[in-house]
Amino acid sequence: MREAARFAAHPLAADAVALCRWNDAAKDPDGALPVPALLGAHARCRAARRP
Fold it and tell me: Please, what sign has the CA dihedral across residues 45, 46, 49, 51?
C-alpha cells in the first residue's frame, strides 16, 4: 500500500496512468487517438524535467 500511495503522490502519476490506458487503447484499430491529451502529457513531462 505504501508504494501505491507514494506513486499516487507523484506529480506525474495521473499522466503515467493515462499513458498506460492510451497504450492499451491503441490496440483497437478503430479507437480514437487522443492527440490533445497526449501533447498535454508530453508538455507536462518536459516541464517537470527542466531544472
Answer: negative
Q: Which of 39, 35, 47 is nearest to 11 (CA)?
A: 47
Domain count of the chain? 1
Q: What is the dihedral of CA 4, 45, 16, 1, to 10 degrees?
A: 0
Give the structural domain span for 17: 2-49
* Distance of alpha carbon 19 from the chain centroid: 4
Please list the pLDDT of the chain residue by residue as tens digits (51 residues): 899 999 999 999 999 999 898 888 888 888 887 888 888 888 998 998 876
Residue 30 CA to residue 11 CA, distance in Å, equals 32
- What's the grid cell of residue 37? 491529451
